[in-house]
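This part of the workshop introduces the protein records we will be handling. Each record describes a single protein and holds just a pair of labelled lines. Instead of coordinates, the fold is spelled out as a row of discrete tokens. To make this concrete, we reproduce a full record directly below:
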Amino acid sequence: MTTPNPKILNPGDVLIDSITIESAPGAILDVRSQFVSMNIYEDIFANGLSGFIVLVDSLNLIRYLQITGREKLRIRFATPGEDTDKDFLTKEFTIYKVSSEVKMQGDGKKLIRLEFVSPTVYQNAQLRISRAFSDMPYSDMVKAIMKDTLGVEVNACPTLGNRNIVVPNWNPMYAVSWLAKRSAAETIPEACDYVFYENLNGNYQFMPLSLLKKRQSIVKYHHTPTSRNPETGELFLKKEFYNILSFTIGGRGDKMREVVSGVYGNNAVALDIVGKQAETEVYTYFTHRDRIPTISKYPLVSKLSDTYSGNVTAYQKLFPKHSFKYDTVEDNDELHTVSTRRQSQMNQFRTNTLTIVVNGDSRRRVGEIVSVDIPSTEDPKGKDDWYDPYLSGRYMITAILHELGDGNYTMKMELVKDGYDERIPDVQTFGAGGDF
């Protein structure tokens, strides 16, 4: 067998070292020669990795390998480069379904598609937990739940305060996601946007998005014409490697959705069923925005022309509250306070979305910050203003679809930001006097 070239020859190259399937009885088959494609999906709002693999089957693999939805799939791959050996990823998944079998014309072969998830996700579906936690932070509860039930270590950002809860026969990951909705960061109490996710390295994170926003941009992607050396005609590999092949603009400037989802203003009412009292917590966008880290420098609306933040009744939640439910603890979780902040912070992530297709890079992970340059539709007035200042700028990667083929690799990445990198003017001057 010829050793593959460890150096990148073309953007989108991939080295696939091995792909094996291990059946439940223990038989192992190398399916590299049957491989057609594989998709691996990681999402910062999902509890684990998922995906599918497509194989050409002329051996009746499903019968003789006894594929019934409980097999182990292993793959080792990397993007070619200077540190290829270090960058190789070895991943193991659990196959849970044969989703399709399509007969190919002419030669009796068929295409089979096998769905898979992370082993921890597969195991989580089979487990339940009933347990009481007393006088400890939510972050410590998360660590205990995942370690004791699934044997998984979690990188959990410390949460504010000690709490008491009872987990009533829930799946472990459901319990952790439930805790995320009630958590505020110890270091930044205003940060109530906790998420629980697994990245491609297999690391589990229990982390507020606000802290991830503080990261520096790790790479810059640009949407420009293909560049070649004028003398040799060869591609400028490094520049082309980070070129955006295509992009789709998602939701942007949907003020109706932003208002009704509580981005600019919302409130929560806690009803104390014992004390017969109601307590209201109010959230306004500009009062809280400067208290937490942000991806974008400037807000979603101009502060002077803001007509939304004062309408705190646009979104409302009601919560039952039972004082001294846990012995001497008067207010256990302060959910009505956390929920107003979380409602705005989580929905700010839906205000500016951009989906880009780029050459595959096995080093990219959800939660990273990247910079993007998207060209403007207007004629540039100079070499430094060719990009669209509202579409371009800093983004966080919230989802990556790794699309692996036989020798090619692309990524579809969902990027989000919570504002703009250019200030929205307080007074509009565009077109004043009829001029453009």
Notes: The chain has ten helices and 21 strands. The chain has a mean pLDDT of 87. The radius of gyration is 25 Å. The CA atoms of residues 111 and 337 lie 53 Å apart.
